[in-house]
Amino acid sequence: MSPEFLEGADNIIGKGVKRQLWKNRSHGLIGDLLESAVDILNGIGLQTGISKQVELLQKINRNMKIYMHSQAHLIAAEGARHSKNNGNVYYSYGAPMSNGNVEKIFNTEANKNKADYVAHPLNIFKPSTWSKPGHGTENYGAAKAAREAKAAKGSK
Question: How many angstroms separate the CA atoms of 99 and 92, rounded?
Answer without folding.
Answer: 10
